[in-house]
Amino acid sequence: MTGQDKVPASDIRLGARGVTRRFGRLVANDAIDFSARRGTIHAIVGGNGAGKSTLMRILQGMDQPSEGTVVVNGEPVSFAGPADAFEHGIGMVHQEFMLVPGLTLLENLILAKEPVGGLGRIDRDTALAEARRLEKLAGVTVDWDVPEEEAPVHLRQIVEILRLLYRGADVLILDEPTAVLAPAQVRELIALLKKLREEGRTILFISHKLDEVLALADDITVIRTGKVVASLPASEADKGKLAELMIGEILARPSARESAAGKPVLELSGISARPGRGTAGLDALDLTVRAGEIVGIAGVAGNGQDELAGIVTGLRQANAGAIRIDGLDISSLPLSARRLAGLAYLSPDRAHEGLCLVAPIAENAIAGHHRRPEFSSSGFLRRRAIATHVEAMLDRFGVKRSSSQLPASSLSGGNQQRVAVGRELDGNPKVLLACQPTRGVDIRGIAFIHQCLLDFRDEGGAVLLISEELDELITLSDRIVVLYGGKATGEVSRGSARIDEIGRLMLGGLAA
Predict the structure, then answer these.
(1) Between the CA of residue 192 and those of 154, 159, 182, 201, 434, what are the distances in Å?
(2) d(Cα 398, Cα 405) in Å, to the nearest integer?
(3) How many angstroms separate the CA atoms of 325 and 266, rounded?
(4) Please, are residues 474 and 386 in contact by the beta-carbon 8 Å criterion?
(5) Nearest 5°: CA angle at 349, between 321 and 357?
(6) 197 and 116 in a common domain
(7) What's 64's domain CATH number?
(8) Structural domain tally of the chain?
C-alpha cells in the first residue's frame, strides 16, 4: 500500500529511504520510505509519538538518521545541519512562529540576509521592492511597516512562508500551519499553498486536520509507531480511512445526552482588562455558564481569550467587573481559594504551567489535591492512600506509563494531557475552565478528552471551553460565544452553529 516504487527517482524532490532513528532502545523512525514529488503538496499524518517530528528534524538537517538516507532530487544526501538543508532549497515553518518581536515584518523578512547599499547600510528600497515582488508572487497584501507583535496571526504565518521564499527555498515544510487561524484565514493560506504548488514548489504539510489534508494534498503518507503504514494519493483517501490508518482501529465517536442546563455556576459581569502586547484585552464582557452546559469561546488568537482565562483563574486581575462561582464573589481570591470554591483549570501550556515535567507522574497527578483530608493528616501526607488513589486515577484516564514514579517528561504529549485532565476532574469540581484541551494530542486522545468533557457536563458540571479548533467547539459546545477585539460579537447555539458564520464573527462581523 506504500506505492513508493511507482515514483520515478527523477520526480522525487524530497524523500527518505530506509530512514531509522534510534534513541537508545527507542526506535522513533523505523525504516521510513516516502517520496514527495516535485511540484506537489505531500501531507504527513500520524498520532502523537508516531515519529513525524523526528522525521522532519532529519529532513531539515537538525538530526541525523541512525540508518538510511534523505533523498533530494532523487539522489541520497547527508545534511550536516539546517544551513546545509537550506543550501538544497529546504526550509521549515515551525508551529511556534520564529519571527522576532520588536522588528517590523520587513525587518523580519530580510533578517540575516539584508541587502546592503552604500556605506554598509541596509538598502531599504531594495528590501521593500523584493518584499513587494514576493507579495505579488504569493497573491497577498502585507503592510511591511507593522511591528511583528501587532500583526495578525495569519499575516505572521504568511511572512514566515515568504521569508523562506526570500531565502530561496523551493521545498517548504509546514508544521500544523492552520492551528491558530480562522476559517477565512485557513482558506487564504490554502490558496497561497496551492499557488506555490502551481509555481513548481514542493510542500510537506504536517497536520492532524484531516479535512484540510484531503482538501489540499496530492499525496498522503501515514506514520504509526515510527513506521509508514500507508502512502497513497489523496483521491483514494477519506477521513475514516485515514483515522483508522493512524490509530490502527475504527474510532468510536464521543456520545452525550442532550444538554439540560441548570442554574448559573460561573458568572462574569462587566469584566474589562487592559490590552497586552499584541492582545486585545476585554471590554465589559458578560458571560454565564450553567450547570450541565459547555460554553465554547471562539476567536482568532489575541482577541481576549488569554485575558479571559487569566481573570477566571485569578492569574491576572480585571480592571472592572465581578466574577462568581455558585453565587460566591471570587473576584479578589487567589487560584487556591478559587479551587476550593469549585474551579478546575486545564492550562493551554501543559509543559510550563499545567505540569511539572521534571517531577514524578504521581506528584503531578495529585498536585493541588494533596491537602484533601483523605491525603493528609496533621500536616503529613498519607502516602499509601495517595499512591493507591493515584494509580487508580491514572488507570481510569488511560495514562500509559511504566512507573508513576518516572518524571512526567517520560510520557508522550497525549499521556501528559491525560494526567492533567484526570487531575482536574478528580476533585469533583463545579466548573472546569478548559483551555486548548487537545492541543498537541492525537486522534485517539482527542476522542477520549472530548468524552471526558461531555461526561462531566452530563453529570451536571459547567465547562468554559476556550479553543482554537472550530471543529472541537462545534462538536462539544451547547453555546459558542465569539470574541473579537475583546468583545463578544455574537453567540450561536448547538444545532445552528456553522463554521462560515462563526468565522465571520471571528473576523469582526456582526451577528446575523
Answers:
(1) 12, 12, 15, 12, 33
(2) 16
(3) 5
(4) no
(5) 135
(6) yes
(7) 3.40.50.300
(8) 2
Nearest CA to 287 out of 78, 75, 465 is that of: 465
Q: What pTM does this model have?
A: 0.75
> Do 327 and 189 share a structural domain?
no
Secondary structure in 3-state letters for 136-162: HHHCCCCCCCCEHHHCCHHHHHHHHHH
Closest-CA residue to 270 (of 318, 217, 212): 318
Q: State the helix-helix crossing angle for 183-198 and 124-138, rounded to 10 degrees.
A: 100
Q: Is residue 420 part of a domain?
A: no
Question: CA-CA distance, 347 to 312, in Å (whole number)?
Answer: 12
State the DSSP string of 58-114: HHTTSS--SEEEEEETTEEE--SSHHHHHHTTEEEE-SS--PPTTSBHHHHHHTTS-
Dump the DSSP string for 155-192: HHHHHHHHHHHHTT--EEEEESTTTT--HHHHHHHHHH
Q: Which domain holds residue 96?
A: 4-247
58 and 126 in a common domain = yes
Identify whether 266 is part of a domain: no
Domain shared by 326 and 443, yes or no: yes
Q: How many angstroms separate the Cα of 14 from the Cα of each of 74, 194, 415? A: 8, 18, 32
- The answer to whether position 384 is within a domain reads no
Per-residue pLDDT of the chain (512 residues; tens, 9 = 90+): 455 556 787 899 999 999 999 988 889 999 999 999 999 999 999 987 788 989 999 999 999 999 999 999 999 999 999 999 999 999 999 877 789 999 999 999 999 899 998 888 999 999 999 999 999 888 888 999 999 988 887 888 899 999 999 999 999 999 888 877 777 788 888 999 999 999 999 999 998 888 899 999 999 999 999 999 999 999 999 999 998 999 886 666 777 667 778 999 999 999 999 887 667 789 999 999 999 999 999 998 889 999 999 999 999 889 999 999 999 999 999 988 999 999 999 998 888 889 999 999 999 999 988 778 888 877 787 888 889 999 999 999 999 888 999 999 888 788 899 999 999 999 889 999 999 999 878 888 899 999 999 999 999 999 999 998 888 999 999 999 999 999 999 999 887 778 888 888 998 876 55
Same domain for 168 and 310, yes or no, is no
Q: What's the alpha-carbon Rg for the chain, to the nearest Å?
A: 24
Pair 87, 171 in one domain: yes
Helix axes 413-426, 443-458, angle to 10 degrees: 10
Residues 6+ apart with CB under 8 A from 328: 341
The letter for the amino acid at 285 is L
Whether 168 and 86 share a structural domain: yes
Give the contacts of 230 (CB within 8 A, at least 6 positions apart). 1, 2, 220, 221, 222, 245
Residue 336 grid cell: 487556591
Among residues 105, 96, 89, the alpha carbon closest in space to that of 140 is found at 105
**What distance separates the 2 farthest-apart alpha carbons in the chain?**
76
